[in-house]
Design brief:
heterodimer; A: alpha+beta; DNA polymerase, domain 1; 2 domains; elongated; B: alpha+beta; Enolase-like, domain 1; five-stranded antiparallel beta sheet; four-stranded antiparallel beta sheet
């Protein structure tokens, strides 16, 4: 699995470079505008600074830009997934000021001054967050599309102290849907971490 | 989603002034409004952000509860005093939406969420009197399994979607609102309007008015409360039928009962006939079931939602058994 991760990251880095876009290091598209076409500024656009995974990004965006679109399209942080785009599936779950939220129902401009954490910011350097490691160990995914949202939600759930029983975990993970049906393994992964007390 | 300007005023005066602009909408948690804007049901030209207002605190004690309109659903649901004093509210909140949505959505916004009627939420359907007054109602002769059996009109049969509002209706809460003409307080059971021939008007809020707080009177002595929600799946789903019950039992008999139901009415539905039948009743399964049968009085089921009539009677009987157990 780790080899796959490495090769996937290399692939993404290479395709980003070939496209003349910002790299996976998280530079905002606006900040690298000199290397490509200047961004089109419409009258509605506003300047905002987003703090994502501890780094500040100056962006010029339309007020209607959701946090999800800002992360994916402006910051190229594509780990956060767009599923339903209606708050129903949880694939876009991120943490804003430590709380799990649906990035698709959050306006990016309203996140100024708040700390956003995405799946890319969960690991500490090269060390996976315990819930990331548990998802690997328990095979808590099939296609993987819902996985970043599942992991962000699970990390918050453990932090909230909700992982007290199987029914409690299922209920408090109800905002994250997995169409492959990996729920039993997701549950096992959460129990591994909650039970070991290494949820932080 | 169409574009708009976004204003973030820091005072209520500035918020109310900004709200006077044509095509302006207030945004709090945004969880319902952004869905509607993405689907082009709502197309505001200006959004006025309420988040700068100091309405995000609450207090709950023996004198009752005062809940700021911008309190997040999750913060209120986590409060131990709320659970002790008003379990019906805690249970209604925790049965609502998902943990992520509850972390975002506010109390005031929850009370003002729009119906889940598919004809209202999908602009591909030409007929919806609530979305486009005068265009007709697609649901009355269409897909109406989820629609109201109480309070409907020839213009609209959409249910109100809030669980919290049902709990607050049973508790006789008061809604504080503020607008250009000052502040006023409205009992929740007068706050929501029946659709009649103007289903686009859902509450007594005037244009430019906002909810600032919800007040809940102190519980009566010996009162217990409970919220039961039945839905198509175990979690993260709107109610088919729900029941909020607030009951005081004395010497094995019901001294006073307050009952409201959700998922069945075009607004949070208080049931005075059931309450009258419950007063003085012995706490037995037969007596509670018999009183709960009054819930369906006046029900007018549509083609697909006849099941709601027995379901609401049984759900209410079960809620009453639970709360008096």
């Amino acid at each position: 699995m780790s080899e796959f991760e490495v090769s996937r990251r290399r692939f993404l880095g290479a395709s980003a470079a070939a496209g003349g876009l910002a790299t996976a290091s998280g530079m905002a598209r606006g900040a690298t505008a000199q290397s490509g076409a200047p961004p089109i500024r419409t009258p509605e656009m506003i300047d905002v600074t987003l703090e994502v995974n501890g780094r500040h990004h100056a962006l010029t965006i339309e007020p209607r830009t959701t946090l999800l679109d800002a992360l994916r399209e402006e910051l190229r942080l594509t780990g956060t997934k767009k599923g339903c785009d209606q708050g129903s599936c949880g694939a876009c779950t991120v943490h804003v000021d430590g709380r799990r939220v649906n990035a698709c129902l959050t306006l990016a401009a309203r996140c100024q001054g708040k700390a956003v954490t995405t799946i890319e910011g969960l690991a500490k350097d090269d060390e996976l967050h315990p819930i990331q490691a548990a998802f690997l160990a328990r095979d808590g995914l099939q296609c993987g599309y819902c996985t970043p949202g599942q992991i962000m939600s699970a990390a918050a759930l453990i932090e909230e102290g909700r992982a007290v029983s199987d029914p409690a975990i299922r209920e408090w993970m109800s905002g994250n849907i997995c169409r492959c049906g990996a729920y039993p393994h997701i549950l096992a992964a959460i129990k591994d971490v909650a039970g070991s007390g290494s949820g932080g | 989603m169409e574009n708009f300007t976004l204003a973030m005023p820091a005072t209520i005066e500035a918020v109310l002034a900004a709200g006077q602009q044509a095509d302006a909408k207030f945004i709090a948690g945004g969880t319902d409004l952004l869905q509607l804007m993405k689907d082009h049901v709502e197309r505001p030209k200006h959004l006025v952000d309420l988040e700068g207002l100091p309405l995000d605190t609450f207090s709950i004690d023996a004198d009752g509860a005062r809940i700021g309109a911008l309190v997040r659903m999750s913060d209120l649901a986590d409060d131990p005093t709320l659970r002790r004093q008003y379990p019906v509210v805690t249970e209604a909140l925790l049965a609502s939406a998902s943990p992520q949505v509850r972390n975002m959505a506010t109390i005031g916004g929850n009370l003002l969420q729009r119906t889940r009627c598919g004809y209202f939420r999908d602009v591909g359907f030409p007929a919806c009197n609530k979305r486009q007054p005068g265009s007709g109602c697609g649901a009355i002769l269409g897909l109406n399994r989820l629609h109201a059996v109480l309070g409907g009109s020839d213009f609209c049969v959409a249910t109100h979607a809030s669980d919290l509002a049902v709990a607050l209706a049973a508790l006789d809460a008061t809604i504080e609102v503020q607008g250009g003409n000052g502040a006023r307080a409205v009992p929740i059971n007068e706050f929501y309007l029946l659709p009649a021939n103007t289903p686009q008007r859902e509450t007594v809020l005037a244009p430019g008015e906002i909810i600032t707080a919800v007040l809940v009177p102190p519980p009566g002595s010996g009162e217990r409360s409970h919220y039961l929600k039945l839905r198509d799946r175990a979690s993260f789903e709107f109610a088919l039928v729900s029941a909020a019950v607030v009951v005081a039992v004395e010497d094995g008999r019901i001294r006073r009962a307050r009952v409201a139901m959700g998922g069945v009415g075009t607004k949070p539905w208080r049931l005075p006939a059931v309450e009258a039948a419950l007063a003085g009743t012995a706490v037995t399964q037969e007596a509670l079931t018999s009183a709960a049968a009054h819930a369906a009085e006046g029900a007018r089921p549509l083609n697909e939602n006849g099941f709601k009539v027995p379901l609401m009677q049984r759900a209410l009987a079960r809620a009453l058994l639970n709360v008096t157990a």
